[in-house]
Amino acid sequence: MSNHKFQCSSCAWSCESSPIILECEKCSSPLNVRYLPQTSANIQPTGWSGHTIPLPLDHQEDLITLGEGNTPVVQLNNLKSRIMADIYVKQEYMNPTGSFKDRGTSIMISALKSMKVDELVEDSSGNAGASLSAYAAMSNMTAHIFVPESAPVPKIGQIEVYGATVHKIPGTRDATTDAAKTFVHDNQLVYASHNLSPFFIEGTKIFAHEIFREFGDNIPGDIVIPVGNGSLYLGMWKGLCELKESNHISHMPRLHFVQTEAVKPIYSAAKGRSWDVSMIRETRSGGTAVGSPPRQGEVIEVLTRSNGSCVTVTEEELADWQKILAAKEGIYAEPTSATALAGAEKLVRSDSIGKNNGILVPITGSGLKDDQPK
Ligand SMILES: Cc1ncc(COP(=O)(O)O)c(C=O)c1O
Ligand SMILES: [Zn+2]
Predict the structure, then answer these.
(1) What confidence tens digit (pLDDT) does each residue in 320-330 have?
(2) Would you say the pTM of this structure is higher than 0.90?
């Protein structure tokens, strides 16, 4: 018997877990994994020892891994006076394909492979596609990755070299999603969407369990995350809730998120302002450029429950922060990741974040995968 079910994120509907069910049959909301009591199979993520982390797998051998996770945390000593607080970064770009997406991909591919899936479709601004292409290669699966034609050349090259078929789609990031969905429908394939698959968040949540191992019950009080669809933001919350429920931590950090001025659907909804995809502008922050994020409602719920705040940054601010991080701390972050630092600075300056609880920011992707800042 499986240790979990799929649960609708906004109503009571639930079903057995399946590779092809990605939304609620009653209200069309995205689904999440809900663990059944007393069926935990005690599977350990790569390199993990310590408390049990619930994972949607039945056997340790089901885990498909390239050695993701266990990324280093460093304190930014040279930038402390500029940010005016203790600031720590977790170097997610040190994951096997250069971004945090490997955490989610490992668990998603493991679950799908254990359900005998051998051909997948995904759409991505680049990082999730590269990640899926790599994990599909090492587990002998066939992958079709849809990317915006405008995705950075190094990311497209990375997807190709692992062996996936790349489909370049003109227009917006959302046009790429539509093309992938049509391809899935026409060819009756499995849509391994990092935005929709309930399994993806089960991998990103391991980030939270790792910071408990690193900080114990002194996890920094404010965590600032770049959000497109929210897979790391929501995974962080799920992992923290698991830690709180198992009495490993006594208090929850506040979860803040950052979007860009160019693409800001969740920020606008959180502030009660109108915004629609016709307002999308060009941005170098491809990872946050999701015009219609299916998990927007869940992100706003976590924002409220964690007492977090949100902010947008301009193209100039994110480029500045990409350069500052490299020149002051030796960290070459991709533009999407730099948005989180630019946002953290703004949140401190506007007093949305206190100066005394410490701030943690994931550096979600590598600057090597993107165009150089001007
Ligand atoms: C480097 C990087 N950071 C952050 C994000 C945002 O992730 P999510 O869409 O899950 O919020 C992405 C998404 O592509 C990304 O590539
Ligand atoms: Zn529902």
Answers:
(1) 999 999 999 99
(2) yes
